[in-house]
């Protein structure tokens, strides 16, 4: 006859350090930021983000090289205009990477697994949208920094003014990153399939830009420059450019911007509404997914 033995190994409580909410939030943020650039994933996942990052750097490097040769200040692309000039590349980056952060867990139905642990729903959303905004900040701020440093090395005139313009552009980059991350993450979160998410984000960008451009052109033909300026609030890049121009003193890079300081304050308020609204929408979206 076979015999069996029961081993009483007991139950031991965990007596180690509990890292708390901050550690969880930081871990989620780092995980999502790495995912935005394809780190820790197959090589094909890294191609698009790093390719787009390289494309973002090329005009900055070319502009610095042109200035070093010609010594003409106009050869340097204005810092605050860089994101507007390169908006197509930034929009593509947002469209391709937002679904990676917003819809991958939804597609594979693993959101409830996250919330089976003591993770707050708001922390989950803040980590994702913060990671997407940081990724966008990286691809917009790094080329601007290359422009600034390259200009200093090549002895650009009026270094004090250059520093002020550079800091203004960095504030603009933060706003661009926050607004675009908010829009991209919300759109992508409602399209679980990545291909649909990419198409949806691109469609939102193209439709808003086309609509605003058409109305602004018609308003200019009719001499209604006030309407032309206020329409800038309905396209994401023009919206942030309005804040840069009216509140930070940057040179305009868009067709038109909202008039006066009031236009700048309205644009800034709309940026805040977009970011806070996206957090609220994503909170409800992931909370619902976590309960299903």
From TrEMBL:
The chain crosses the membrane at residues 50-70, 82-103, 124-149, 169-190, 197-219, 261-283. Keywords: Membrane, Transmembrane, Transmembrane helix. This is ABC transporter permease.
